[in-house]
Automatic annotation (TrEMBL):
Coiled-coil ranges from the UniProt annotation: none
GO molecular function: N-acetylmuramoyl-L-alanine amidase activity
Ranges of biased composition (kind: Low complexity): 1-25
GO cellular component: outer membrane-bounded periplasmic space
UniProt keyword terms in alphabetical order: Hydrolase
Protein name according to UniProt: N-acetylmuramoyl-L-alanine amidase
Amino acid sequence: MEQMQQAQQEAKEVSVTPTQTVTPEPTEDPSDPVVQKKNLIAAIEKAVEDNNVKTMTADLRYAAEDGQIGTYEKEDVAAVLLHLKKNQDDYQAFVEKLQDESVTVGEEDGVPYLLLTDSNLRKMTGTEEPVETVEAEIVTPTPTPEGNGKKVAIDAGHQAHGNSEQEPIGPGASQTKAKVASGTTGRTTGVTEYQLNLDVSLKLRDELEARGYEVYMIRETNDVDISNAERAQLAAESGADILVRIHANGSDNTSVAGALTMAPSTANPYLSQELIAECQKLSQCIITTFCASTGANNQGVYQTDEMSGLNWCSIPATIVEMGYMTNPDEDTRMQTAEYQQQMVTGIADGIDQYFAS
């Protein structure tokens, strides 16, 4: 009897429970221009965060005076991304401009993009114009009698404190790497790689200036925080003709010694074939003269597509691995003033040869 009464009570409770109707959330229409504009702005905000030149270039266009639709230059987009990432006020102002009703949604082959009215993306975002453009607007500079009209950017590899935050290894890449490391340390001397790189880079600057080059230094102190992608972009923005990145090597095998340069391979997905060829040419010139000057074992040009500092370049670039800090003899030798001058002379000779050929 108790069981029957309990069953009746449960049935009664079930019968009086109201049925709840769930109203589905309204879905956004992806073909709605308002929705498309919102999604495109979100994609551009993500592109700034990821330093993604490919996305930014694809999602932004401008209406030219002749009525044609124009595409922003990748060099300009790269400079703007770097500027917006470092200048929050300009970034917020840029996002607000994208939300303005004057910015509409266009479409090419079924793919939407934001159509802007301003063809100068740098000016629109407060990004400085390239050095050469500014100079051309004011006056065409005449090289001094000692000058040769060429400009070299020097990047002393690494820095005192690494930055393990990730960045794409190249424009539009899904693969990421740490922004920058602090480098290796001399097995015998205990000198850090970032200090050796800076010491040699400063001497290289003096040598190149004595030969008539204009020099742009990515860093002149160890207390910086500049990612490898940013270093490549800064070099291009400076108006330099080439970028030389100074590094030292390391190996688990302490008997390994010698010098090498690094260049992108012909399969590199981020650079044009013309730029790849120039990077390889620059690398070959420098390693040949470097080893001739120092007597170091020539390990040749190592081709790699995994180096952010090369993949983000828009000018010819090379990485110079001067020697192995894990080799006791080479580590000690690279700390002497005499050998450092030999290294500097060898690199400068290679730069001379590159521009002469």
